[in-house]
UniProtKB/TrEMBL annotation:
Superkingdom, taxonomy of origin: Eukaryota
Cofactor(s) needed by this chain: heme
UniProt protein name: Cytochrome P450
GO annotation, cellular component aspect: endoplasmic reticulum membrane
Organism: Parthenolecanium corni
SUPFAM superfamilies: Cytochrome P450
């Protein structure tokens, strides 16, 4: 029996020695760092306790209040958290050449892996340059009637709930709205998921945000050990996705063959680029052409990124308006005043006049950034300012929008919902790079103007007609989902709604 005890003690000592050696990278390089005690590194609260990953990172952020950067470990992989806004600006903008790639699997394991998140270097730059014109002001103006068409279905849903007195799930309804918008504006297809509760299009979306244990494990491996997925040629994506999006692409192309005029949507731009390159047999210096794989992958990307994140922002906004009736009333007054001055028309120019609405949206995305952290990979050796340490190529860096947005130093009383934080004067008073909801720099979100115009239109339409209040099913405070990388409500966002009189 004593021998068994000795063996256990020896094994424990050996494990501690090995862990200390394993987690010694930052310490030996003189970088302030954490001291993990399991092979799960600093992410163990997420795996063991189900703690939201944004909160895990935020605890580390707050534990080093006087440091510009902190070394941590995602499992056993060294990762540098950057806290200082000036250094964040250097990474995202000034010294972008050193940090132009994201953490990703370099080897393509699926036809859906050729989009802006997974592409690196010159290939990423080539594809992004071709897609950017999709979101020009003129293109967005042309998409406005399509967004308005989808908004009418949202309006109808709320009118019915207002008449019956039932609560509605703002998150689910918003997700179906943003999905219908993507169908219209990107593919030229009418998904009508707001009217079809068993919509195949929506079920695929739910599969993406409910990946299950296997999916979560593969996502963790992609961030922590991408080489492992490359070696075994494993895709993290659920099997049904490729045939689904292949079918979508074919439907969109077939639909266009029977139309006499060209559609003003994203897919048409994609197809025009592809056809032009095929005619001249063009592959640019990056070695990538705008072929069907690139189109398929970016359709998939916009389907993922353009639905859940925007829907979360809309629903969190409605939630905060319900909890803050003074803000809701002020916003309704602005909306009605601007609409009246513009003959009731929801034009591109009308929406741009809604300054308080922009403040409300910005405050919502400050409090609930849909992407709570931003990762980058060092692509060229980079000496950290104020330090003797040099990041070598391949090292990863993480920026924390959630933590920056909830730092008392930049946003006093951060749990309070206060749109006045985003007056021009208050924005000017804060250091640059302390608002990161869409990122910054060349690799920021490609479609912030599209997301904003979509949010402006639906919120303008809804707030002008309806009053939102908490109900028996409303969670206060709201519970957030654990073990995922996004900020999402755990149980939906259930609100009461009633129609308001035109002059109220």
């Amino acid at each position: 029996m004593w021998l068994f005890g000795v063996l256990i003690a020896f094994a424990t000592i050996l494990a501690l020695v090995l862990l200390r050696k394993l987690f010694n990278y930052w310490r030996k390089n003189g970088v302030p760092s954490t001291s993990p005690w399991t092979i799960l590194g600093d992410l163990w609260p997420t795996f063991v306790e189900g703690k939201i990953i944004a909160f895990v990172y935020n605890d580390i952020y707050k534990a080093f209040p006087n440091e510009k950067f902190v070394g941590i470990y995602d499992l056993i992989y060294p990762n540098l958290i950057v806290r200082d806004p000036e250094l964040i600006g250097s990474i995202l903008v000034k010294d972008f050449a050193h940090f132009q790639d994201r953490v990703t699997v370099q080897k393509r394991t699926s036809r859906l892996d050729y989009h802006l998140i997974t592409l690196c270097g010159e290939q990423w730059k080539s594809v992004r340059t071709k897609i950017v014109p999709t979101f020009s002001p003129n293109k967005l103006k042309g998409m406005l009637p399509m967004i308005e068409y989808c908004a009418q279905a949202f309006d109808s849903q709320l009118r019915e709930k207002a008449l019956t007195g039932e609560s509605f799930d703002a998150k689910e309804t918003s997700a179906r709205f943003t999905l219908d918008v993507i169908g219209c504006c990107m593919l030229g297809l009418r998904f009508n998921s707001l009217d079809d509760q068993d919509s195949e299009y929506r079920n695929i979306g739910k599969m993406l945000i409910n990946p299950g244990i296997k999916g979560i494990l593969l996502q963790v491996l992609r961030f922590s050990y991408p080489k492992l997925l490359e070696y075994f040629n494993i895709s993290e994506l659920p099997t049904p996705l490729l045939p689904f999006f292949t079918k979508l692409l074919k439907q969109s192309e077939e639909f266009r063959k029977h139309e006499s005029t060209k559609r003003n949507d994203m897919m048409q731009l994609f197809l025009d680029i592809r056809d032009q390159e095929e005619q001249i047999n063009d592959t640019d210096d990056s070695g990538i052409s705008f072929n069907d794989n690139v189109i398929l992958s970016n359709v998939f990307l916009f389907y993922v990124a353009g639905v859940e994140t925007t829907a979360a922002a809309i629903s969190f906004c409605l939630y905060e308006l319900a909890l803050n009736p003074d803000v809701q009333n002020k916003l309704r007054q602005e909306v009605r005043t601007v609409l009246k001055a513009n003959g009731g028309e929801l034009t591109y120019e009308t929406l741009k006049q809604l300054k308080y609405l922009d403040m409300v949206i910005s405050e919502t995305m400050r409090k609930y950034p849909s992407t709570p952290f931003i990762n980058r990979v060092c692509t060229e050796a980079y000496k950290l300012p104020g330090s003797s340490f040099t990041l070598e190529p391949g090292m990863r860096v993480t920026l924390l929008p959630y933590s920056i947005h909830h730092d008392e130093k930049y946003y006093p009383n951060p749990k309070k919902f206060d749109p006045e934080r985003f007056t021009p004067e208050n924005i000017e008073s804060r250091p640059p790079f302390t608002y990161l909801s869409f990122g910054h720099g060349p690799r920021m979100c490609i479609a912030p103007r599209f997301a904003k115009i979509e949010m402006r239109l639906i919120l303008t339409r809804l707030v002008s007609k309806y009053e939102f209040t908490p109900g028996p099913k409303t969670e206060i405070p709201i519970q957030l989902r654990s073990r995922i990388f996004l900020i999402m409500p755990k149980n939906g966002i259930h609100l009461q709604v009633k129609q308001v009189e035109e002059n109220s």
